Amino acid sequence: MIGIVALVFIMFQGFGDPARLVAGQSGDKKTIENIRKDLHLDEPKWKQFLIYLNDVSPLSFYSSEEIENKKIAGLFIGGKTKFVLKFPYLGRSYQTKTDVSKTLLDALPGTLVLAFTAMLFACILGISLGVIAAVKKGSWADQSAVFSSIAGISVPSFFMAIIIAYLFGIVLHAYTGLNLTGSLFEIDELTGEKFLNLKNLVLPAFTLGIRPLAIITQLTRSSMLDVLGQDYIRTAYAKGLSKRTVIFRHALQNALNPVITAITGWFAELLAGAFFVEYIFGWKGIGKLTVDSLEKLDYPVVMGAVLFSAIIFIFINIAADVLYRIIDPRIKVV
Description:
The protein folds into 2 domains: 2-86, no CATH class; 100-327, MetI-like (MetI-like fold, Orthogonal Bundle), CATH 1.10.3720.10. The protein has helices spanning 2-13, 18-23, 29-38, 45-56, 64-70, 100-135, 140-154, 157-171, 173-176, 202-228, 231-238, 243-255, 257-273, 275-280, 286-295, 299-327; strands spanning 59-63, 74-78, 81-86, 185-187, 194-196. It contains 16 helices and 5 strands. The strands form 2 sheets. Strands 1-3-2 form a 3-stranded antiparallel beta sheet. A hairpin with a 2-residue loop joins strand 2 (74-78) and strand 3 (81-86). It is mainly alpha-helical and 334 residues long.
């Protein structure tokens, strides 16, 4: 996280003048100087980095004036200079002047729903196809699954998104009824009421799930073939257990470790990297918010989104370690 914080800070220090972006083209010299002072841009670069590190750290030191100006909320200990336990302060948007953390949290539900739906689709279909391909090795079902998975891995998500959006959202719209763009919640133009529209979820979730589906299929097939050749599987058959019991109770459970690695890794990537898919389908989530913010040069939002994505990766990887222990009791938690 410290490395990512440093990288994000260095990357966005060289893009334009933040004070000019905040003040706009009509801002006078005095206004820009005040903004630079407020954003600590008049300080040396090393000091600006320490201030930024202090802001994004959950354990920080602030003066009473800084707490009031930045509207820091948390647990305070001390007198004039306080030790603070807080949610990371990511600054305020240059465009909307709202807190970046609030902006990201507002966009998070859309990305969570999209990523979870895409991963659920990829897991159910991918594991099923992988098991079928392994059990029926060499058959047309196996060859079809392998060919489809290779094609799915090879095609970039943004290219697939364009093709699927055009095909199902425009060419076949009369038959599918699916919209080219749309979000989870929409507003009725006549009544102004907000309503849930799950139909808009189909195309982006399907597009986002194609690549993890292909990888999960390949990994499940490979892992199942390895497990099916083990001695205990032959022993299970020798004891008279049914093929269904051997495959699903003994083989599949022991073949899931590499699949869990792929699932957790791809789920983290779907949460953090669905930028182009969300943008192409007009899906309101962190990805579209980040791309829109880049277009508007709203760097605090972009920086916050990158750090937020890094945190997601870390916590999902920790969850993967816990899942390994649940799935495979042979793994010890040290």
